[in-house]
Amino acid sequence: MLVRIKDLSSGPREFDLTLDQGWWRNADWDDRILGLEGTLRVRMRLYRDGENLVVQGRLSGGIRVRCDRCLSEYFHELKPGFRLFLSPPPEDVNENEIELCEEDMGIRFFTGDTCDTDEIIREQILLTLPIKTLCAEGCQGLCPRCGANLNMGRCGCREENGHPAFLKLKQLKVGST
Ligand SMILES: [Zn+2]
Ligand SMILES: [Zn+2]
After folding, report:
1. Domain ranges of the chain
2. Could you list which residues have their CB under 5 Å from ion ligand 1?
């Protein structure tokens, strides 16, 4: 949803949004999130603080995430509260420099006349993910040989690997007959 910044001059605006499962879109560079778990309820409050724009929000819901190790899906509850400060960009900076400027200075800017709440919510969701997404602390991951999910039990590969001498003996027997 786009909020016109101009509309905030008369006072804060509040929104109560319910986003359905089809709302989530992945960024090209990150496909760990598989979608929302049911609907996501978002309460937002936007207001001006002098030149700055303040966005406060509360998320209730969760997402389906893919485990980095075993590739299975799991539920990740979202951290509920967030608060963002956005500043107007300095006048001598052009569109292309804004991102660099944000990284350097650790400041967030808003550009144009509108604020995209979907974009903000999406970003907050991504921020709640750890660098490594794991379904469980001690996830066993996949067997590098057969690809079996080791959380479900042993796949049998280990036993074969453990007895190379035994395998050789078998081959010898076959050869001699
Ligand atoms: Zn896992
Ligand atoms: Zn295996």
Report:
1. 2-139, 141-177
2. 67, 69-70, 135, 139
